[in-house]
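Z., the sequence and structure:
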Amino acid sequence: MTRFRTWLACSTCALVGMGIGAVGHAAWAGKAEPAVAGSGPESGPQSGPVPAPSDYSRFAKLDTFARALVYIEQFYVRPVDDRELIYAALEGLTSHLDPHSNFLRPADARMLREDMDGRFGGVGLVVTLDFAGEAAPDEAAPGETDSADADTSAPARAEAGPGDARALVLRVRDVIPGGPAAKAGVQAGDEITEIEGKIIAHYADLRDAIGVMRGPAGTSVSFAFRRPGAEAQTVEVERAVVAAPAVETRYLGEGIGVLRLRDFQESSAREIRQGLRELEASAKQDGGLALRGAVLDLRDNGGGLLDQAIAVADIFLSKGVIVRTRARAGRIMDEARASPAGTRGDLPLVVLVNKGTASASEIVAGALQDHRRALVIGERSYGKGSVQSPFRLGDGSVLKLTVALFYTPGDHMIQASGIKPDVRVGAAVPVFEDTRPELEPERANPGHLAPEDFGGAPSSAVAEDEDPEAAKSAAEREAADDAQLLVAVQHLRGLARLGEKPELKKGRP
């Protein structure tokens, strides 16, 4: 039996022409051994597997199943496909396990491999299954089902037609720059209402819908999309091989930049290092500045390859544990540690997280937080701290099983707990309220002495209460309406100042 590398992810998003799991990818690659209980140092009261009774036989358990299968094949009123029966039985078998353990049919397993490769024919969209004109219901919250399922449990309501206020749509979460959809004018926030002339409720689930949008490069697919409050328009695009970048960089000014990590692909750590070099070059062009700080944006990153999560954390850590993996009875399976080679340990760092931050992203955020290497800002993360190993079953299908749980360097369990931010920020910054509104500042007194720098240029400082927008720095203005990024920039400016040598002017007599 061929085995694959350990992987972890969590999302109800799908990357149409990019992969399943916008809040994250399931990791997939290679032929390395998966995590197996007892493969590393052990702890806890149990020193090894408990021996089975002498009369135990797992084949005896299969007798009941074999008899039932024979009866169905011989006596059911109509002919049945025995392969479909076996697949359905395996799906039922894994449904009694945790939500992230499941059976993947060959087509689903192939799509998962494509996701991890990051290159395949598609249109370049990140989408979620949603209802028209409203936010996703609670049962479709990001991370509720594993990305390999792509929210197959979501209701595909055939009675929901185009005129129904709760008709199913594919909501566009992100558009891959330069992809076919981007060239057709699709934007984040748009709703896809039809694919190949069929409403979204026609498709069984999210994976079924995106399976139609994917296809060989050079072939065409049509779909209808609309913006809130506007009429739908139908476009036909030519599928292309979408090489989705894992990292997007954005320079904000003042020597501060953002590294947005979409997911943990094969190239994520390499792209993070390249992104840092790009930000350094941008800062140098901005008046010869050095890179004073970076924001690692892990929002809506649902995970991916475990080894890439470790490699990304290792970029900013020079020593110590990054993550511990524990199996049954708390036995330690593995303990990944940082190495000093190539570490960027002197760069002030802020990590952004939200409820869509899951799995591998939580490993990175937890490691940087526990080592006091970065300030974590945003919302408590999703809390998907389990690892799945996929096992190929011989016909292209895959059994994906949860084999272990992850713990941060401080031995905090991620599963169902998530990463609690150091600074909690939601969708909006709280409105500022003056603690002493009755007290006028000195500058409000008639005839007050104007600020003077004793021989230097007069101060041009703007009071925040007079013009809050003008008082913002260049990087703060670049953050615009992104409240979490704005707070991250404000804290990062403070961290950068603490690490810089002050330039003090000598006083004059």
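The longest helix spans residues 58-75. The first strand starts at residue 7 and ends at 9.

Let me know what you think.
H.
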